[in-house]
Design goal:
The protein is of the alpha+beta class and 204 residues long. Helices cover 69% and strands 10% of the residues. This is DUF3801 domain-containing protein.
Length: 204
């Protein structure tokens, strides 16, 4: 629910982080899911902080941190390329839009020469910067909740696997244990064989 996060922007960031985390979880388990969340959140936080710091800055060379430039005395625009480059970055652009709308800040999204831009009133630059600060806080909260959801998912999966093992017939469990023991014994024998050969060679 949006109310859980204060507004819809936080909810969108949480949904985005959780989806990426669950994809990592399905590919490689709990640790991979947690790493996916941490990596995604780290990139997003850096992009938000770069955008906040760029607001009101003079245009610079292309590439690197996003640039904010005055289009005329009344309007400025912010380079949104770093957000668009994130995995499923359009969801994050939508979260930025939602945050600015929640703060009643006039703004628009446009594209020029393949570069996505956020357009806002020059007079609103401090409010826009504050909105990006709020998004950084929203991102930290979303990261915490997504990580907790990932932990809950792993606990449920562990319990499910344990329940499946408990339902397994005793005869099948004994057979599985015997096979595992045979494999370990075989590996141990293979490990001892070279040592025995060396000992026999030395005794000759």
């Amino acid at each position: 629910m949006a109310d859980d996060f204060g507004d819809d922007a936080g909810r969108q960031i949480f949904d985005w982080a959780l989806r990426l985390g669950m994809e990592g979880y399905r590919r490689g388990g709990g640790a991979a899911g947690q790493r996916a969340v941490e990596d995604a959140i780290g990139r997003l936080e850096a992009a938000l902080e770069n955008a906040r710091d760029a607001i009101g800055a003079k245009p610079g060379p292309s590439g690197g941190a996003p640039q904010a430039a005055r289009t005329d005395a009344r309007f400025a625009r912010l380079d949104m390329s770093e957000f668009a480059a994130l995995e499923d970055g359009q969801r994050i652009v939508s979260a930025v839009d939602a945050k600015l709308a929640a703060n009643d800040i006039w703004h628009g999204m446009t594209e020029d020469g393949g570069t996505p831009w956020l357009v806002f009133k020059t007079a609103d630059a401090p409010a826009v910067a504050s909105a990006f600060d709020q998004l950084v806080s929203d991102t930290k909260e979303a990261a915490s909740r997504a990580a907790e959801r990932m932990r809950q998912e792993q606990v449920r999966d562990d319990r499910s696997r344990a329940a499946d093992r408990d339902r397994e017939p005793l005869k099948d469990r004994a057979e599985r244990a015997r096979r595992a023991s045979d494999v370990q014994s075989h590996d141990a024998e293979r490990g001892r064989a070279p040592e025995q050969n060396r000992a026999e060679t030395r005794s000759k």
